[in-house]
Amino acid sequence: MKLWKGRFEKEADPKTNDFNSSISFDSRMFKEDIEGSIAHATMLGAQGIISADDAEKLINELKKVREDIESGALLIDPDAEDIHTFVEGELTKRLGDAGKRIHTARSRNDQVALDIRLTLRKECDALVSQIKELASVLCKKAKEHYDTVMPGYTHLQRAQPITFGHHLLAYAEMLLRDVERIKDAKERMNYCPLGSGALAGTTYPLDRNMTASLLGFTAPTANSLDGVADRDFCAEIAFAVSLCMVHLSRLSEEIILWSSWEYKFIELDDAFSTGSSIMPQKKNPDLAELVRGKSGRVFGDLMALLTMMKGLPLAYNKDMQEDKEAIFDAVDTLKMCLTPFVPMVDTMRVIKENMRNAAAKGFINATDCADYLVSHKGLPFRDAYKITGELVALCINKGITLETLPIEEYKNVCEDFDEGVYEAINLEKCVRDRLVYGGPAPENVLKEAKAIEEKLEII
Asked: In the chain, what are the domains?
């Protein structure tokens, strides 16, 4: 059944039908399409636009259609043009003229705009739940390793001592922002386009506030053109999903590095690793690598949405059919990545001694050595910086560390040094003393983890 058939004298070429069809990807919205149709029929009946009897028949039969699809008693026809056409056709088949009344005062333009908002509203909730679960796991791990010393890096060079818990909570903070972005996008999206018609509303006395309320929207959309032409929410959710994938990709990269023999800071559980077909010794972080790779796919979905919309005049254009494949793929990919990622992080074994051994190398306490001269001996920082740089060069030449450099060597470079320098550059003390708000001190890590957990309870 073609809803637009009356204007045409010839049947569409099968190639046109295949190219034009969206049923393969919009059929997932059947519940939302039926939900919107039930609200629309309820309003039409309440407004006297259709009879109360027809409205009741439509509502009851729509519920039966939904039940039949869910149970498998009714299969969605893959040859249908789209899910809207399929549902309306099924109603007409079952109810005759009453079924034909469902499309009164409605266009597929406002219908699809509604369906995709309803669908993405649910998907946003599902994403938020999964992201919060990962953030919770990171907090749990951070509390277990609140005082586990490791090297912090800049430029992938050992830089300053931090704790593993502090490092993990940096990602938890990113995920909090991801949750907030998705929730913000959902709130901006939560306006009902139904009643916008094709582009210019309708002459029927619709109660758009009633329909919006029945469907849980904040209000109706304020402009009929914008109601059917807006896909900002798709792009915004795709951006939020893309940025979350950036964060997962960065953490994946670190997991890949940390699980290598060169680092060996962690070991992934066998259940979340794979092997090699030819090298029996291999244990590969394939899940993390796939997440890192799939980020590019999601970025492509975002670019597809932006490119699709950038040149479109108002109002609806067929180009906009491309919105669903892109945004659904972005959402589905993030959900798919989070599903194994959470238990992978939760079950990974942290090798504390390797982190501590790495922290002991690379002179990551050099800044603390310079700070000792500043705070205890009154030297200007730039002078202390230069002196410490000379000490590092000396240690490199001798193949030793600042901790093992004799005090006589310290004094040869600067006579202000005394035995107190060894306490100042102790790695555990270096970390403990970083008590500034946001710093990696163990007590800060515990406070931050608790604060994030509390925030996760309320957002």
From this structure: 5-104 (1.10.275.10), 109-353 (1.20.200.10), 366-425 (1.10.40.30)
Going 130 to 133 to 138 to 139, the CA torsion angle's sign is: positive
284-341 pLDDT tens trace = 999 999 999 999 999 999 999 999 999 999 999 999 999 999 999 999 999 999 999 9
Instruction: Tell which residue, 281, 279, 287, 284, has the closest CA to residue 267.
Output: 284
- What are the φ/ψ torsions at residue 105 (nearest 5 degrees)? 60, 30
Contact, 59 vs 149, CB < 8 A?
A: no
Distances (CA, A) of 406 to 381, 387, 428: 23, 15, 20
CB 145 within 8 A of CB 350: yes
Tell me whether strands 191-192 and 219-220 are parallel, antiparallel or unpaired. Answer: parallel
Is residue 4 very low, low, confident or very high in pLDDT (cuts 50, 70, 90)? very low
Q: Is the model's pTM score more than 0.85?
A: yes
Catalytic residues: 155, 276
Mean pLDDT of 132-145: 98
The set of residues, in sequence order, having a beta carbon less than 8 Å from that of 12 and lying 6+ positions away, is 2, 20
